[in-house]
Amino acid sequence: MKTSSSLEFLSDELGRLPGVGPKSAQRIAFHLLKIPADDVARLALAITEAKQRVRFCSRCWNVAEAELCPICLDERRDASVLCVVEESRDIVAIEKTGEFRGRYHVLLGAMSPLEGIGPEQLKMKELFARIEPEGVQEVILCTNPNTEGEVTAMYIARLMKPFGVRVTR
Ligand code: ZN
User: How far is the CA of 68 from the centre of ligand 1 (A)?
Assistant: First the structure.
């Protein structure tokens, strides 16, 4: 068996990250070798700390550093309006507009029959379980405007009917 050098090991690991091809991985690896050791140590620490501290909000599945995320902890947010998104990073984009004052629910993905991702693989049960206890009146489906996002939105809209809440896209 071939033993890979530290540099190859680093390039291989970087290349496993989303959106990083073999060429970019190699470029980043060489960049890391060039910069001061302190800078590399800080990057390594940032990764390790984020991984240790960040978890998912037990209510909305947004990223959180406590049981609940900052949005769920904010009493001024309107609990009657729920915005459903695929990933936490979608929340960041919506929050930047400053126009939404409700709460969120992160599905942690979208339905994709091709990849075998159904409602069971997403935080779907958790979504429906929130409607009555939290007094949700309106659900805004902010899934991505692609096939998976549309399928997911249609599925939620259909299952939301018995709850009698307003569902918008
Ligand atoms: Zn939350």
Answer: 5
How many angstroms is it from 10 CA to the middle of ligand 1? 35
User: Which run of H or E residues covers position 160?
Assistant: helix 147-160
What is the Å distance from ligand 1's center to 113 Cα?
28
Instruction: Name which of 138, 148, 158 is nearest 87 in CA terms.
Output: 148
- The HSE-up count of residue 106 (CA atoms within 13 Å, CB side) is 20
Give the distance (Å) from ligand 1 centre to CA of residue 31.
37
The Cα 60–Cα 83 span in angstroms is 10
47 CA → ligand 1 middle, Å: 22
Angle between helices 124-131 and 147-160 (to 10 degrees): 40
Output the CA 57–ligand 1 centroid distance in Å: 5
Give the pTM: 0.81
- 39-82 per-position pLDDT tens digit: 999 999 999 999 999 999 999 999 999 999 999 999 999 999 99
Q: Is the distance from CB of 77 to CB of 101 less than 8 angstroms?
A: yes
> Six-digit token pair at 82?
């729920």
